Amino acid sequence: MDTMSFGYAEYDPSQTPHNETLFTLANGYLGLRGDFEEAEGTYHKGTYINGFYDSEPIIYGESAYGFAENHETILNLPDPKRIELEVGNLPFSMKRGVVHASSRSLNYRTGLLTRTVDWSSAQGDRVKITTERMVSFTEKHCALITYTVEAVDKALFIKLTSFLDVGVRNRSSKDDPRVGSKFTSNPLVIEHFSIEEETLNFSAKTRNSGLSLYGSAFHTISKEALAVTPSERDLALSYTFSLAKGESVTLNKFIAYTSEDDSAPFRARRFAQESFAFHAQEQEAFLSEFWKVGRILIEGDESSEQALQFNIFHLLQSCGRDGKSSMAAKGLTGEGYEGHYFWDTEAYALPMFCYLKPDIAKSLLDYRFSILDKARLRAKKMSLEGALFPWRTISGEECSAYYPAGTAQYHIDADILYAVEKYLAATGDEAPSTYVEMAIESARMWLSLGSFIDGEFCINEVTGPDEYTACVNNNAYTNLMAQNNLKFAITLVESYQQQDKILPLVLEKDELESWKLAQKTMRIPFDKRLGIYAQDDSFLKKADWPFATTPKSKHPLLLHFHPLVIYRHRVLKQPDLVLAQFFLSGLFTKAERIRNFSFYEPYTTGDSSLSHCIQSIMASDSFQSLKAWTYFKKTVRLDIDDSQGNSVDGIHTASMAGSWMATVYGFAGFRDWKGTFSFDPKLPSAWKALTFCLTLHSSVLKVELRPDTVIYTLMTGESIDVIHRNENFTLKHGESKTFSLVPKLGGVLFDLDGVLCDTAHLHYKAWKQVSDENLLHFDREVNKGLLGVSREASLQVILDHNEADWPQEKRSEVLKKKNDAYVASLDSITPSDLFPGVLDLLSDLKTHGVKIALASASKNARTVCKKLGIFDRFDAIADITSVQKPKPEPDIFLLASEQIGVWYTDCVGVEDAKAGIEAIKRSGMPAVGIGTKSELPGSDIVLSGTKELTLELLKKVVAGR
Ligand code: G6P
Ligand code: MG
What we know:
- This protein is 32% helix and 22% strand.
- The model has no long low-confidence stretch (mean pLDDT 96).
- By secondary structure, it is α+β, with helices and mostly antiparallel strands.
- Strand 37 (907-911), helix 25 and strand 38 form a beta-alpha-beta unit.
- The radius of gyration is 33 Å and the shape is elongated.
- Helix 6 (358-370) runs antiparallel to helix 8, helix 10 packs antiparallel against helix 11 (511-520) and helix 13 (577-583) packs antiparallel against helix 14 (590-600).
- The chain has 26 helices and 39 strands.
- Bound molecules: 6-O-phosphono-alpha-D-glucopyranose (G6P) and magnesium ion.
- The site of 6-O-phosphono-alpha-D-glucopyranose has 16 residues, from helix 20.
């Protein structure tokens, strides 16, 4: 399979609408949807210019102050692709005559779309048609179509008619909020059209937005025509040919569309001065430069490799490169979401461009600067200082007619500044004053949006990324990202001040201080009991969505339930807090990321195409490879397989970019937190190898990942600092460094009670004593549930068993009593209480350089170890009071492995409690159980006593043998 192309060899008319999207060619400016040349058999002919739109007032049933005033819709332009063929007076179409064979192929290497049809008319006249199409990456206004017809088995008369079809319109759809235009009249007015010899021309103006468009098509033919007939009415030129048997003729159509000036006729003619072969070569040269860094190779999974290249190619086609346009959510492939720019650009696509083609990333950010003044006006309208970027727009004006899932998503400012920060860190560039200006204005916006309430900076009445929860107080994602935005603005301003550079805006007295206070006191909702960040102040007080009784046919929920019904429940369209944990990874411990991902996952419907890729990345981060793989599969072919059922309206650029992120940030574990580049690779088991490149500070780093090794090579540039897992290294030009990924025993993390010594019976006695005193039933059976469980949770188990509920005061009192009794009993402990074999094992591990840590849930662990005489044997004793949650949460094991500096997967945990085994497994480590198999499910191996544990055995367990 050629993974650098995508196509079909058999024609299936039912796929035509969807294929038109997939076969789109574009260059970030001009987009030609992949519809056929002829009108018949086409679903929707589409031609777009990025940012070329018209607007009309939004008609609200009930309006209110500050509602977005106008909708803006990308316009479907006169169709330059249209060419009709007649064979012996009968029109060619896929719906008539006999289609003997038909194929289409989009080649990402050449940037060409090729179509072949072997067809006979009803009269039996057989022709072979080959068309090639290109939208030039080097001449942004230009495109080219070649149309070749061959008379197969007899001499034929044929006619080719080439159009600039001014009859096309935007699609309209009333039922799905995601598609269709709302124009009351034709928004594009054709002002002039003309035919001058072999050239078709038109000029047009939009009705309201005041934009001009000029289009031209210049034709050349490979053989003299019998007749050339212009049709002014149709803006078409017809060429009649007589072909001998086996003879062919080619019509070349050189197209130019301009929206900035009237140069289209000139550009079309100039483009036609060079041959198709010349332009094809230019196109390939541009792409070859891009693929040098952009190419991803996957051994063992051609289908994913092909889809990834497809996605990357489409993203390259979708992004504006002129600093005046951005990336529509659907690229230039269709009219879904009206051609609007959302946060998809900065949050999803921009990271990829930072590392594959930084000039595009820059251009996308420059677009944001170009609309800063409009964002300032919007801020004023919304009673804010600074600048508020629009949730969805083309021109820079807010166009979200449904404010709860639009304007309320204030996080757009923070997403843009996060992208600026990423871009600067990835390229190592100094911040230009334009970005500093955006940072200052966004910081001002946050300060005026939020308020200091009870000592906390609160941001109320906003919507986060999850659109199934709207207009809430203190959305964690928003507040975290706003905090990051403020910190970034402070850093930029201070660095300008330190360098005595003039700031683009004058700061008010104390302004910087107020930003500092806001970011420091930012409210981040956190639920202590669950140990998770609440999505917002109200999220945890909502009832769960009734998933069990919601049939598949009722998904996506947004098409089947009133928003209020959805908002009332605990249900997510896409990751929210979890997304913040990906973006701001360095702010959270591994344990926090694992716990929050697991908590939110069951509530996350994935109804947004922006969902699966983030889930995949965070599943990878959480040692859940299989899950990561499943989510990746749902993302990578989302448009090719049309799994959301709406690819006909356009590609899902965010999901496409997400598939790159799931590969690089997910499987390769790339992180770029504050400009530090690190990797934690975990190749999917279905893959034999993954190779990709990243541009880091204008150096190109190649990463080759195999099941057992990873190789980092600096392809270009002088040197770069990289981190593999927890090892820092520097690569010089041409240097490679290889790391083994085979798990190798490096650390053993021991539980204490029941593993190293028998203190469990002392805990039992103490619990028995306080239970008896309080008339609670407690016996050996109940005690089993207490193993490895924290003191507080143990009491809860006993209370639950007795169906009792106590106030906190009473709990604290009894917990103290229990602990006093337990501590008193510790007096009797001596080294002889160590289990047999423990000392020898600890010595053996030390001799062989294996690090040893204690990961006990007991706050008395240190005392016990001292009494046992093994305190000094440990390289680290992880402190249970410093972690967020006890076992079965992974915190203590992750902390222990971090303290001994051994990578998680090179550690093994030893436990006698079910909760402990669970904690070890959640930490991505193999687990040795001490006890019985039935009581310790999930253990990689179960031993009856610690004395059976040897260095050799531990090595085998870690190696997975
Ligand atoms: C260990 C024991 C538990 C005990 C817990 C807390 O995990 O197996 O039975 O409840 O530590 O101990 P502490 O000494 O802090 O009460
Ligand atoms: Mg234990």
